[in-house]
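[job 4417] fold queue: 2 targets
>>> target A
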Amino acid sequence: MNSRVVLERFPAGGSRGSWPAEEFARARRMEGQQAEVVMDLASDAFLVIVREPVATAVPDLAEIAAAA
């Protein structure tokens, strides 16, 4: 499962809908971040997020040497 970092939130009931969130995400993508817009139904808001991969466990080198 990936973790997500919320960069910014925008109210869904705004007069411009998701456009401010889309514009913010586009600006972050121009900076090199993989930002995307998602809808948070619980808070009725558009969230600009960046997904971060969860670190995977790396075996200890001593365990690898002992198994060999």
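>>> target B
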Amino acid sequence: MPDHAGDNYFGFGSALIESGKIYKSFVTNTEGRVYQIDIATGVAKAGALITGGVDLPAITRLTKKK
């Protein structure tokens, strides 16, 4: 991961854990992105660019009601 300004959001909902990966947003000096972090290796990959603001206080998966 690049240097980032930290994480202002902690606790339930600020990260999504799924299939051995953690999805969490971080803000650098130039942009906000969601990162995919492999739990086993600690390797982080830059993902979705956050537009319309820089903070993403919660990440969740929505499911369609059957």
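[job 4417] complete. Note on B: The first strand starts at residue 15 and ends at 18.
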